[in-house]
Specification:
single chain, HTH_LacI, DNA-binding transcription factor activity, alpha/beta, transcription, 17% strand, Rossmann fold, 334 residues, transcription regulation, Lac repressor
Length: 334
């Protein structure tokens, strides 16, 4: 992996380093249009990888790439953007072109595609999943374990990484460990949130005798909702946990802003470790400790699985699990 600097990104995007820094930190006060933001995020992700794309002169067959979010949401969470980039790169190398379908797009054009790559699963409505399955085409799910539904999938080993994060906090003497969880439902059940990381967190913390529902904060995976959730939590005069597991980097960046405004020092008063280790994690202030998920590789592997399905090389559904790695930076006591 090639690590980019802010100056590298700024030079290629033809903007100032300060603008890059503020975009990667999701600064809402910055007056920059969405196309410029998307350009910066794209370059930041691109500079993390050495790409060798094979170009095909003939008209390539199409792969449908389906996302549960809209374009704006995708920009706010580089996790999904990077998975899609991985799919795009490997599709190109294998001689396919991709067509993206966001949450409000009609799926009718999928009829012309030879295969489907679905990013996520729980985020979709039952009707949307039914509509996708109705095409009866080779399909792979990414970032979702669908093997029990007889669907091939590519996932990361979050079960191990959640325990690793909690154990790290415990080694630093931090026993009051909370979680900033992601849930898209406005009417969520705090004891049974849909985020699969929460289920692992709750299970392991219960096993340790440390689980306390009062230490659970809920947002919607974006910087804005991470900020708002932590701010409202503090306004209710709740005492912040000593450490916070955060479902993704985007929400963690929002949480950092709320804690900074409340003059709560990170990591001295609250340690934070998030998930995904997107480009934004490295440039956050302070830089985020995060569980690294090779999202680009997840996308590439997903495309390989889909090609096997299209070619008929594998008749049965199968699952590929990618290893994660805890990357420690400034936001946690280490």
């Amino acid at each position: 992996m090639i690590m980019a600097t802010i100056k590298d990104i700024a030079s290629k995007a033809n903007v100032s380093p300060a603008t890059v820094s503020r975009v990667l930190n999701y600064d809402q006060s910055l007056s920059v249009n969405d196309s410029t933001k998307q350009k910066i995020f794209h370059i930041a992700e691109e500079l993390h990888y050495t790409k060798t794309k094979k170009r095909y002169k003939h008209k390539a067959k199409s792969i449908a790439v389906i996302l549960w979010c809209d374009r704006n949401q995708e920009i706010k969470d580089l996790y999904y953007y990077s998975i899609r980039n991985g799919i795009d790169d490997q599709a190109s190398a294998l001689g396919y072109q991709t067509k993206v379908f966001y949450n409000t797009d009609s799926l009718s054009e999928i009829e012309k595609c030879v295969g489907i790559a679905v990013i996520g699963h729980r985020q979709y409505s039952a009707k949307r999943l039914k509509d996708i399955n109705a095409f009866n085409k080779p399909t792979v799910f990414l970032d979702a374990d669908t093997l029990s539904e007889d669907r091939s999938c590519v996932v990361s080993d979050f079960h191990t990484s959640v325990k690793e994060v909690i154990n790290h906090f415990l080694k630093q003497g931090q026993n009051r460990i909370g979680m900033l969880v992601g849930d898209l439902d406005d009417d969520y059940d705090k004891e049974n949130l849909t985020d699969f990381r929460f289920h692992d967190y709750k299970s392991y913390m219960t096993e340790l005798g440390l689980f306390n529902l009062d230490n659970v904060i809920v947002g919607k995976f974006t910087p804005e909702t991470g900020y708002q959730a932590v701010k409202e939590y503090l306004q209710k005069e709740n005492k912040m946990p000593q450490a916070l597991v955060v479902a993704n980097d985007a929400m963690a960046i929002g949480a950092l802003k709320a804690l900074r405004e409340a003059k709560i020092a990170v990591p001295e008063s609250v340690s934070i470790i998030s998930f995904n280790d997107t480009t934004a994690a490295e440039f956050a202030n302070p830089s985020l400790s995060s569980v690294h998920v090779d999202t680009h590789e997840m996308g590439r592997m997903g495309m390989n699985v889909l090609k096997n399905n299209i070619d008929g090389d594998f008749k049965d559904a199968y699952k590929v699990t990618l290893k994660t790695k805890l990357v420690l930076r400034e936001s946690s006591l280490n």
